[in-house]
Amino acid sequence: MSLARVILSLLMLCALPAAALEPFAIKDIRIEGIQRTEAGTVFSYLPVKVGDTMTEEKAAQAIRALFATGFFKDVSLEVDNGVLVVVVQERPSVAQIDFAGMREFDKEQLIKGMRQVGLAEGRIFDKGLLDRAEQELKRQYLSRGMYAVNISTTVTPLERNRVAINFSIEEGEVSKIRQISIIGANALRERDLLGLFVLRTPGLMTWFSKHDQYSRQKLAADLETLRSHYLDRGYLEFNVDSTQVSITPDKKEIYISISITEGSKYTVSDIKVAGEKLIPEDEALKLIRIKPGETFSRARLTESTKLITDRLGNDGYAFANVNAIPAIDKQKQRVAFTFFIDPGRRVYVHRINISGNTRTRDEVIRREMRQLEGGWYSGDKINLSRSRIDKLGYFTEVNVETPAVPGTTDQVDLNISVVEKPTGVILLGAGFGSGEGLLLSGAVTQQNIFGSGKHVTAQINSGKINTTYALSYTDPYFTVDGVSQGFDVYLRKIDAVNSGLGFYQTRTAGAALRLGVPISEIDTINYGLGYEDTSITTYPESPLLYQDYVATFGDHNSTVLGTIGWARDGRDSLIYPTAGTLQKATGEVGLPGGTLKYYKASYQYQRYFPLTRSYTLMLNGELGYGVGYGGKPLPFFRNFYAGGVNSVRGFRSFTIGPKDSNGDPRGGSRRVVANAELLFPFPGLDNDRSVRMSAFADAGMVGDAYSTGDFRYSTGLAVLWVSPLGPLKISVALPFGDKPGDRKQPLQFTIGGVF
């Protein structure tokens, strides 16, 4: 029998065979043309095996299967005396990928990204993947404002059917925004409108923020900001007509032109409430923040609908819908609104389900819940519950969902999922303060011991002035009502000699019991009872004041210390507050049974006023008062002090007030501190919440009587940065109103934290 060779090409797959294939029994199968691919791999994809009858249909299936692997760029089948010969031509593999001229991106990161889409060393070369990779790389350059980039790709054949891929890149210069124009702005100044934009022309900090580089996403956000600005000022018909972005021929400068129509300014003529009024109409009208006669504001309109929706949600109407329907009078430039209320069906919470707490006990989470099972749905209680769980500090995430209970129309489940974080920490820390000098610290803390929510801390802090060793324990839920209980054992040393604050040293060992009684969600009253043993060391150089005290009352004193305090923290954030108040009132008294007889009281009031979305005014006031009783004075080592980065900046820490006979500060029994601070984003870092600046004015006094003549003042600029090493505070102050012997320190800073 003569050799019959039948070549089946891709045309056969389209049902256009060059010649008919006579069915035959396959005696053997031979693979030809493979270099890297194992023969077994080819056999595994073939739909036939030795002994099968080969037909045209099976031949077409075999070719399709081998092409589908992506390993081959050509496949043909031949027959040699009953032997099926599979002839393949392999696609080349990628031997290496290289980049020439690239500085903007990290090479390893790009190679890793290409591997994820299938283009990598050792894999089959695919021209389509290479083209997509080139386009994506160019897109990444364009997103960084590098419009002059030129990318060319070279594929070089190598031995053993391999290729080398080289990306040759001419990055060019970054294109900068040269001008942004707003055409049609008549009622509002163009300069003020451009100040709202994130995009801007090159400035002092744009080298860092990159805001002078064009981005389509940033421009879209800026246009929405512009729209909101007009709508909040009554321009109901405001519209962005067109936006044009052009680039110079050398691709170095970008010009943005925005055409707008301001329209007329509208006032509100009437407000009505319609629909199903489940809350009294007068109460609903009070929740509406936009009133007749006022200029229209979309922000106040949105706030009004949200307040009504939230109010209904607190009564169990979880899916209430409130729509404000406008009636526009274009001739008089007036608009009336009717708030249509659709409360939907009232629902209650069926079950509270908690998941993700593999360590923390369920009861630790459930005791923070203010929304209870079986109670009517309340949006405020659910939000408060989530906030209280988050403030425990045991979780990186707290998510709340309220799915409907299947088969019901008036029930929802409350699903709380948490992601736990480690709560046992061994900390070693170091820092430096312009007043304290080198600070060393170490602590072993378990905030959630055995998943019970109880806290245990052992701490060591060492500084130039203060050295503290302490052990603390707190049970935040000593009772089911949330009364906390704890104790502290500590050893505290104050070295005023080395700090230049006076010739004396004190060593205090003490222990105390604490109780905290919550009286509201943001108010807590704290009680404490403790005992302290204090020894005093004086020197021949010590002022007569200190020596007389030791001669009269001895160099060893004991104190039965009673404390009481009240705290209310209504700030919106602990790290970056922009609104709310913080109040603290504390008192301590040396009770009968100890040798020290005195009492001290202090009060702090701090409030944040949001002026704009970027500017916040902070006002802070502190008062302190102390006096001895039972024929004894206030111990000099219990005096108040002021000065430093945390009170009156520009004066050295603890140095404001009366001086002893050596000219060193001795503190006083009265203290007043006042601060006014305008907080704003660091220039060029508007959206970075870890750093911001302030312009401040400080005032304070310490003495044995309240006197306006004893006040010291300062003004200046400060920077607060929550750095990876801990909070960094820097202030540059101009002190004035100083007295003889005061120690000025215009530049002050503190930095420190754990690592």
Keywords:
about 750 residues; alpha+beta; Ubiquitin-like (UB roll); 6 domains; 16-stranded antiparallel β-barrel; three-stranded mixed sheet; 13 helices
Task: Tell me what the structure shows.
The protein is α+β, with helices and mostly antiparallel strands and 755 residues long. The protein has six domains: 10-90, membrane protein fhac (Ubiquitin-like (UB roll), Roll), CATH 3.10.20.310; 93-170, membrane protein fhac (Ubiquitin-like (UB roll), Roll); 176-261, Ubiquitin-like (UB roll) (Roll), CATH 3.10.20; 267-342, Roll (Ubiquitin-like (UB roll)); 348-420, Roll (Ubiquitin-like (UB roll)); 424-754, Porin (Beta Barrel), CATH 2.40.160.50.
What is the gyration radius calculated from CA atoms? 38 Å
CATH topology of the largest domain: Porin
Please mark out the parts with pLDDT under 50 across 5 or more consecutive residues, or reply none.
Answer: 1-19, 427-441
- Main sheet: strand order: 18-19-20-21-22-23-24-25-26-27-28-30-31-32-33-35
For the biggest sheet, the summary is: 16 strands, antiparallel, barrel
Portion of residues in beta strands equals: 35-45%
